[in-house]
Amino acid sequence: MTQESRNEEPTRRAATLGAAAAAALALGAGAATLWTRKDISARLFNPMRLDHFALGGVEGLAFPDGAMVPALATADLAGRTSILNLFASWCPSCRDEHALLIELAARDVAPIYGVDVKDRAADARAFLRKRGNPYRAVGADPKGYLQRALGARGIPATFVVAPGPVIEIAILGELDRETIEEKIIPALTRMG
Known about the structure:
By secondary structure, the protein is an alpha/beta fold. It is built from 7 helices and 7 strands, in the order ααββαβαβαβαββα.
């Protein structure tokens, strides 16, 4: 081995190791970015989508006339414009916005459907019995699968859903009168 080839060997080795390390760092950074963007973990490991879901009902939840409140599935949203509200009895913002949902339901501008997220059935029943039930159907989402599939990292979240079903408007956070009058009602009117 000549002196010249001995000097080249460490340089090639260093270059190869440096390139491998740079590739590993780039791959790791890319994977980390992809994993956190738009809650990709929920999309990869989530059995639900807006266009394909079926939630069981809240056990024992009944309307004031005694009829059981139905469960919620894609078919409920597919053929009409509707409002989908994600809530839980333990959520302070959900309690704050609930009276507005009752008023909106009384206006009968569109059916309102509820998704009870990570809640106990007894608590959800007591919450809706005490405050009123604005929902035509309520699905229980005990693991938050539908919540994450819709891109809602927290609750409350309210969606105006067009036939399809397709999300037209997403309100991630508490509703207020201004949002209802300036976003939800005009969207429902426009979609007819």
